[in-house]
């Protein structure tokens, strides 16, 4: 290990470590030890994610010792606060091995002076829209955290945990003054637990992660065609027949509500209706528009189970959206509303949130049109279109929720010109996507006076890299008065209990920052620097995204060594967009089943390659400075990539699941060879040879193609070495 | 990768992978591909752990395809069985990516023929002592699992999961005929959740692991001085004041009971009394023998909180055992028994098991002797010794349990000559340990007609390697009629939620095999071969022992690369015996606190070094055969160890927690240098140089010493290279 201007570089043979070393040494502790090329944005935000609305960094340190203790000035009955203070305190104790002398922070500790003083002016719990601001001042002598509410204090505690640094065996906080508050009051993550059931433990770990990045709403998509995940005592056939045994008991639901509230997070449940409702009808077919039997399963299932020669099978995704008959509530039956009234009443005893999400998305009206009684009812009621019937249903459900003192949220399909003003419209359909017509822009809804939530551009299930979401501008030009905020949305057709964490995290943190930090915090490189730091912090706090990846690699090699495979998979990402999903949906095979294993390479690689970002950073710096140390680092990396393909050959032979990425391995080899040649050309000092460049770029363009539903991520950076210039990132990728 | 007589060797630069490669290629698939030096014991047991009581292996294979399905002939209401069948089915689906066409195995599947047929003759649930036998026959056409009971079928399903092999991209079962049943009906794991609280999730993962190795009793040590971990509605101050907030709600307790029952495991709760009971008195001091106040904490705490100049502070562990005043129930008060009656009654609504463990261990009577009223009461009742008062207390509690239809279990301290015959005596004190006098041998108890449980020699918290427990003979020469079985015992003074899995697993599997397999299954090398395979299977099924280790290493390097550190820690084990624990107990500092972080190197390294075992195996084979390929593998490994010390120096500078193992790193370097020289001597063909050998052995003896509460594990194998002969393993190590 030798020191140089990039800090201490460990020269390793292992790709990810090697590159993490570049990253961490170039950018990690830099503001504090003084170094090159650090923008003021990096200086001021340290490793904090989301970036606070206001931060000043001073010279100096507060050093952690075993004497570190906490006094709290707050409502002594604020159990949520005291539990959070103790969690933070023990995390610091463990991370730093300080062996704190004080064991527990209790209300009686208030009177004694302490190194960290926490003041909370008002006890709050689980409300959306309270004052979440806090201020934090670290001096050499002490730390003062001040918050208007319990929720603000919880955020401040997370900031404290992100402020710990280490040097020469000592842990310390840099001296900072932070005044922080969120840009939006609703910073949500939607998790779909219907398509694949997610265990309570995994939900808890996701809540822990949300708290780290100051998200405050878990939108829990609890029911869909594929599964009804909630125990109902009123209507037990809902979970008994609608879940294949995978549901949460009411005790578990309550436990999670409390677990989330302890971390400043409100759970807003979604019960999707009138469509996306096949699982309801497995137990109660009489609620449906068309006769059963029904069983939980994908949208295509009912139509497959009830073939009708007069209707051709669904062939394309556009056709599926427009013409597929999917199970739908019968909005003309009184019994339906009686049922929903009772069911909603039961759910309000579990979910204290003032909001309930009713979905209401993607109902093409086909099931209604096929039922002559419904058609007759529409005629009787002077309805021309199924849109009017949808309006009728939404209004009835709205009134039921209102009776139970809940505000209705729905996806934008709830919108119509008579929608009650207290409804919240959840925008999701990307404008001009060519497949699904939007019901209006977010600004339309907000301008008309509706509280609006935005998930447009925040669908993290389409496998885009984090910067795409980070650059999403859909919140910027809105009538801000009525915009509550936004939500990252994770649908789970292609995610299950074992890959969910790696699908959501760390990417969702980019959305969290977009929702919390000021609109002018937009530096992508700087975001990625902090994102990969955060990833390790999330792992420390128990999230399984990193270990699930390692475990999945061991499974793919059948427990043979995984490092050569990891050298390749570390630079692969899932193919971007909905191609894989739509292929599965329109060609029903074993693979569309919920039980189909999600254990292919495309299922386990991350959407952001840390190695790519480190390499990109290294290439960018090298092209600017022509530094021989960086050149050597890049060359070593390229040699590892070049030589990896030969070592992987036996793996491709042993496993059909690995054979599908064989082409990427060969391409990585070829790209590395080109990269090494490009480095040599640069070193030679000669002018670039245009025909050689053309030839290489043509080859490289091929390597960007998708194989085995994955994409090779370092091709643009090799192009940059050939071109001697780093091109900007693509602003977007095709979704379909 | 090239083929040779040891199979396919991947030459890697990474120690553990390198050596796992030796292991897996030498021994993994060997019986099926035909290879050298495989004993018939290895042949016949495949990778199964525990080894079945009877197994025959035939040539040929059953190949898994997407057509694999299951039919069940059993009670259609056996929900436990159907859930287990589906879990197994989905695990196979995921592990092999077979995309099974059948989604779920339901009772209606009985009629159709299937590749796997399961017959269960009697539905059982959660009883100890039912017929747990099963037979399994795999032919090229189909698989037949036959079991007398549900529990037997669950064991057979675990065997199926351990029988999957892979070759040339195809997964298959070898053809076997297995007739299996357990040696003992009680195969337990005791987990102490009082000293450190263990989360419900971690308990579930441990239950999953227990099921894999066919253990059937979770003995849950729920209360002790340090914590009362059970919610009581009758006496809410028990958990409110006795747990520092860390307890299981009744809903959670019930959930775990069901979770365990689903996996064929009975939960037997332990409520320790009359000693080890400080946490009870935090809320109810009136139950104690001496006045309060009380708070949950280590044994030494009450005496420290109530200093008495007439009693010198406890200085040694022997003194602590004999003279320490530790909180104890007052056995002379009627209110105590009324309280316990009500409390036990409440607990029986949560724990359906027919057994309750009352602890009753380590009461030296000091608290009783110091209370004049108790002394007077003893006099009134003609009791000469506190042993007689203990007898009185045990009898009263026995009668309370009996009233609630529960059999009493207690540690051997419940034994006395009037103990009711239906009590179960739990043997734990090692005979002749020099510190604690035993109450009799296991054989004494069994011969006198008491049902007996054995944990003598199965205390896995004393950091011994697995073979020590595997070689434990304490069950062999007993009056078998009354011996129920045994339990591995994991106390948690030095284990918490983050290192518990690595403390228990995979080692506890060696105990599980001792309790399940025939007494003549004793080959240690063969056990280790399977143990490290099992470790990966446990990881696949969700156990966090491997990922917690990786995470802890990242914490130790402050997120710098961990591979050099891992090269060292992979060959370190915790110092064997109770030295660390006793040092903490007798010198009260911050480190005795329950909140003290367990994140040092000694807290995270495994008790069995897989690298050591692979290296040992390699050295043994090499010394037998003088094979140049093996010589090269060993030499590469020695070079890695030699060069690792230099790379680690900056880490020792950066971290005081790492600096404590600096000496081991230097010793590993020196030992490797000696090993390389020894290899060269052997290759030279010269006779050994006796004086050189003497000199090296003297140095090597030094390297066996403990530093930083850890020990270097590969020294004996270097000695073997110097001596040209592998010495047998030590039969035991000192505990104190």
Describe this structure in words.
2 copies of one chain form a homodimer. With 736 residues, chain A is α/β, with parallel strands linked by helices. Among the domains of chain A are: 54-180, Chitobiase, domain 2 (2-Layer Sandwich), CATH 3.30.379.10; 552-723, no CATH class. Chain A is built from 30 helices and 20 strands. In chain A, the strands form 4 sheets. Chain A has an 8-stranded parallel beta barrel. In chain A, helix 12 runs parallel beside helix 15 (386-403). Chain A is globular and about 85 Å long. The model of chain A is unreliable at 1-18 and 23-42 (pLDDT under 50). Chains A and B meet through helix 1, helix 4, helix 8, helix 20 and helix 21 of A and helix 1, helix 4, helix 8, helix 20 and helix 21 of B.
Global mean pLDDT of chain A: 91
Helix content of chain A: 40-55%
What topology, given as strand order, has the largest sheet of chain A? 10-11-13-14-15-16-17-18
- How many helical stretches of chain A? 30
Q: Please summarize the sheet with the most strands of chain A.
A: 8 strands, parallel, barrel
Count the E strands of chain A. 20
- What does the radius of gyration of chain A come to? 27 Å
Strand content of chain A: 5-15%
Overall form of chain A: globular
Low-confidence stretches of chain A: 1-18, 23-42
Instruction: Tell me which protein chains meet in the greatest interface and how many residues each side has.
Output: A-B, 74 and 74 residues
Terminal Cα span of chain A: 47 Å
Structural class of chain A: alpha/beta
Oligomer: homodimer
